[in-house]
Design goal:
The chain has 98 residues and is of the alpha+beta class. It contains two helices and four strands. It has one domain: Ribosomal protein S6/Translation elongation factor EF1B (Alpha-Beta Plaits, 2-Layer Sandwich).
């Protein structure tokens, strides 16, 4: 199944993010059971606005956007389809580059 990275900017402050995340989980569970929320990285932008980069498994981008629209309290900046994953373990060390 395709995976997506969703870049979001929130319209609530950091203190309200747990409420939004709980609502997101419930919306997925009750209305979009095909979607799997893998994890999110939450950051604070230079202007103090909370942002997140969330990884979801979903049948298609349209369903990801429908879930986001139903959630509210944020703006989706970009949705990317994940082409693959890499980690440092995928690149073994060879000779010292100098």
């Amino acid at each position: 199944m395709p995976r997506y990275l969703i870049e979001r900017t929130y319209t609530v402050d950091m203190d309200d993010l747990p409420t939004v995340a709980t609502r997101s989980k419930a919306i997925g569970h009750y209305h979009y059971p095909e979607i799997v929320w893998e994890h999110s990285h939450v950051v604070v932008g230079v202007d103090g606005t909370p942002k997140s980069f969330c990884i979801y498994e979903a049948p298609n981008e349209e369903m990801v956007r429908e879930h986001a629209d139903r959630l509210g309290d944020h703006v989706v900046a970009t949705v990317y389809e994940v082409a693959g994953d890499v980690s440092p373990d995928d690149f073994p060390l060879t000779a010292d580059p100098g």
